[in-house]
Amino acid sequence: MAQARGSAPDSIEGNQWTLLKSCSELHLTYQIRLLTYMATQHGTKLVISVPAGCRISRDLSAFAGKYAQWVSFDFFERGEEQ
Questions:
Q1: Would you say residue 82 lies in a domain?
Q2: How many domains does the chain fold into?
Q3: Which residues pair with 51 in a beta bridge?
């Protein structure tokens, strides 16, 4: 039997999980769906941190809207990565 893949946020501070992505365009991925599910189960918020100017795909934007209580975006200037 195959084991399910896992994922972890890049940082955990209190009730906020941060996923850091350095890309020009971000799509809805298995990692984002899984971390969102895990965040809902733990009662935490998933903050996806991306560079300013990063394009968010239509599917990811719709997903984030559906799960707005659990998912948000943080846009940073390059060089400000934590």
A1: no
A2: 1
A3: 76
In angstroms, rounded to a whole number, what is the distance separating the alpha carbons of residues 61 and 26?
10
Measured CA angle at 56 (ends 7, 10), to 5 deg: 30
The first and second tokens of residue 44, run together, are 């935490």
Read off the pLDDT of residues 8-52 as tens digits, 9 standing for 90 and up.
Answer: 999 999 999 999 999 999 999 999 999 999 999 999 999 999 999
Residue 51 lies in a domain: yes
DSSP string covering the chain? -PPPP----SEEETTEEEEE---SEE---HHHHHHHHHHHHHT-EEEEEEETTPEEPHHHHHHHHHTTTTEEEEEE-TT---
